[in-house]
Amino acid sequence: MLERVTTISAMHIAWTSFLLALVVITIVPGPDFVLIMGNAVRSLRLGVVAALGVITGLLVHATLATIGLSALVVAVPTALFVVKAIGAVYLAYLGFMTLRSASKPIAQEPPRKDSSVFLRGMLCDLLNPKVMLTFLSLIPQAMDPNAAPLPQAAVLSAVTVGVFAAFWVVVVPLARQLGTLLSKPKIRAAFERVCGTALIGMAASVLAA
Fold it and tell me: What is the pTM of this model?
């Protein structure tokens, strides 16, 4: 244990630039943000479940980036294109489902199951190639080239997941405060149309990237 602590402390990781870039990436709205917001305004429980799904997806990305599988996908153009295509199709699907929901009175909608919301959150993050590329572009730049790469990747990946999780701990309760305003049918429908359109636009941007 002492040897492990000494090894980590000896790393000269570029924490300042890494954390600044990570904060900016975290607060810029993306598909995860839209999905979590759309559930959080309905109930705090659904917002938390969606956020847990997203964080689970982040953990998978962090693990894959740490052991190098994500880097392999990026190195193979065909594999990366397949990941992008699947992610874009899924985001577009979420967008169309959200637009469809906006056209229905909330009383006519079937209740959302926790398992379904969790799975959507996880897949939304897991199938987003931009999340994968964030891990593979941000983390290597902060690493000490003179230290062992695996411990550094593990530490930086863990910090990345932790920062995102802390962000959702703050944002989900705040988003729930919009629930009263969005209980008005016209405002709710407009909000969901914006969310649905945003998801479809993000799907297009994933393919174009």
Answer: 0.81
